[in-house]
Amino acid sequence: MAGPVIGITTSMDADNGEISRQVLGHHYVRAVERAGGCPLILPMVERREALYPVLELLDGLIITGGPGITDGLIGRLPDDLPPVAPERDRADTWAFEGANQRGLPILGICYGMQFINARFGGTIYGDVQTQLQVQAHSPKRNGGAEVRHGVFLEGGSCLDRLVGQSGRPVEVNSYHLQAVGQPGRGLRVNARSADGLIEGIETGDGRILGVQFHPEGLCGTVWDRVFDYLMEQAGRQGV
Hints:
There is one protein chain. With 239 residues, this protein is of the alpha/beta class. The protein has helices spanning 26-34, 48-55, 86-101, 111-119, 128-132, 158-163, 224-235; strands at residues 5-8, 11-15, 18-23, 38-41, 60-63, 73-74, 106-109, 124-125, 147-153, 170-174, 179-180, 187-193, 198-203, 208-211. The strands form three sheets. A nine-stranded mixed sheet has the order 4-1-5-7-14-13-12-9-10, with helices on both faces. A hairpin with a 4-residue loop joins β13 and β14 (208-211). α2 (48-55) packs across α3. It starts with a strand and ends with a helix.
């Protein structure tokens, strides 16, 4: 029996100054497949109507990592973080609105979490290291070396129930220059780093979940449960 169909958004890759390729890290596909889902890579189209038949196939949605968020921006983007391409911003908006209108479960990862926060009217710091004087949260600012740190889960949150380690730091990876400032309307914080940055958000019912780190790159850890949860929620769509 086939598992739930999970739409996965993509990024634009520039070639010689022109947008030419739609790209996706394979870790996202593998994470969905490992959790029992059927990954469906979403196309970037020129017309919203062209996406309707694809969105009708979905039982859930993942909005992946990406470039700089400009909606709800506090300050400006740094020189080492390009703004999101209009094509991606438009496609992500159409996918999110289509999935949200149908009440599908949605998982936002890194850029995806920030994108969701902006859709709910929240704010985003353009360069959190400079603006809040915190340590580097990205290899870009750490001499290329991987960044790992702990996050503390908010008791009673959906994410806390999934991971089950309330009160203790849980290790995550880190690749972001931006961070959520003010959570959007109807969103609650579910995780923070030791330096106070918001590392996760969710709706009250847990249908929409966002994490600032990359659980698809943490295979074999407690963060697999994020994808297990998405499949569980998405599986109910076909009931």
